[in-house]
Amino acid sequence: MYKVGLSVFWCILQSPATEAQQHRFGIPSCPNTTTFTINSTYQANRDTLLSSLSSNVTRGVFFYNTTAGKSPDVVYGLFLCRGDISTSACQVCVTYAATYISRRCPLDKTAVVWYEECFLRYSNRNIFSVVTETPTIYFLSGRSSVVTISEEDRFEQFVLKVINETIAMAESRPAGVSKYVTRVENISSFQTLYIRVDCTPDLLGADCGRCLRRARAYIPAGR
């Protein structure tokens, strides 16, 4: 089985027995390149922003972006939940992410945390409707699908074909529309390919497609 997860891209090959498993750990990115001082205006704005994100997820939305404060201490922030989870699961994920990111990245002016169900990000720069490919994370599950050498090329061609078709579906959607797309393809009687792609809805379709194609390169061959 392989699993690749990024902030905008998920691709899963798994058997039905493991389909329901979820990864509950958070993966933070705290670059520590730009920091703020304790009890500063920026910290107050950051805390206000995180509170606003937590409050607005209770409205049942899966994507939300907002700002807090004024220049030069304005903070931009957003969250995105996976399109196939419940509103309550989205609320739990975002609420926990907002608390976790302030604790894990206490003095960072920009930070992001990924979960299986959502990701949350804030920055001192405008991040709305902008493609951002860094930082990037990917992770693999501990088990691999067994593919013989004679089958490997055909298998990889099939997976790439389905991924490209799924990306094209997300790319066709305009800004302001959810770009969450899923595909399910049976590979054998005991293996199913599950593909999920997503971008933040504020992106143009072309920008989403370009980002997803970059993410595609992280899928390891033969897995």
Automatic annotation (TrEMBL):
Domain of life: Eukaryota
All copies of domain Gnk2-homologous, residue ranges: 24-127, 137-223
Keyword Transferase: no
Record InterPro entries: GNK2 (IPR002902), GNK2_sf (IPR038408)
CDD domains for this protein: Gnk2-like
Signal peptide: 1-20
Keywords: Repeat, Signal
Keyword Signal attributed: yes
PANTHER family: CYSTEINE-RICH RECEPTOR-LIKE PROTEIN KINASE 9-RELATED, CYSTEINE-RICH REPEAT SECRETORY PROTEIN
Protein name as annotated: Gnk2-homologous domain-containing protein
